[in-house]
Write a structure and sequence with these properties.
Length: about 200
């Protein structure tokens, strides 16, 4: 019994195809459409040309018989877990995000974000394979070009911390967005702590 993964029509769409041979050497395939995070629309097409069947409802299974005939029916989460437990256990962890806040005009992480920083380090250490996106931000105080520089320095500061934890630089992308993507919309030259931040996504 072999298990084959299929990714179709969606970023996090996962379908499972269970292929096996019976005593007569005919081949059968089981395809299951799973819900995506955030419930975006997804679909998977089975077959070719005029014999193509599309399933577009989460938790729907389609079984392809040896003659190419497709039969559909609902499947429960419990049945998915029972059938594909090994494959589900082998999935990489879902992406997780962390937000760290900074002192005004500085690359110093605020004391109240130290706990989040520790959680970030623990999450990176826990994963066998990891890719990290680090994005720095500022509030609207100061000149735009200065905020571009500061946001990049904040992102680089966190990147350096992650490298200090043993993560290779090639697995970390650090960029600065200045005051372009405010978490809290404010007028120009307005002090807002929540905008002085670095957002980290661990995949």
């Amino acid at each position: 019994m072999a298990l084959k993964w299929m990714k179709l029509y969606g970023l996090f769409l996962i379908c499972f195809a269970l292929i096996y041979l019976n005593a007569c050497s005919s081949k059968k395939t089981l395809v299951v459409l799973l819900p995506e995070e955030g419930n975006p629309s997804s679909a998977v097409a089975i077959g070719e040309g005029d014999r193509q069947t599309v399933i577009d409802q989460p938790l729907t299974s389609a079984r392809v018989g040896s003659g190419g005939r497709v039969s559909q029916k609902p499947i429960t989460n419990a049945a998915v877990q029972a059938t594909f437990s090994a494959a589900l256990a082998a999935q990489p962890p879902n992406p997780i995000s962390f937000t760290l806040y900074f002192e005004e005009g500085s690359t110093t992480v605020l004391p109240e974000s130290q706990g989040t920083l520790a959680e970030l380090f623990a999450e990176v250490a826990r994963r066998q394979a990891v890719e990290v996106q680090v994005t720095g931000h500022t509030d609207t105080v100061g000149r735009e070009k200065d905020n571009d520089r500061l946001s990049t320095e904040r992102a680089q500061r966190i990147k350096n911390m992650l490298m200090g934890q043993g993560l290779q630089a090639d697995f970390i992308r650090a960029v600065g967005r200045g005051e372009r993507e405010l978490l809290v919309p404010t007028p120009d030259n307005f002090r807002e702590q929540k905008n002085r931040r670095v957002e980290v996504i661990v995949r």
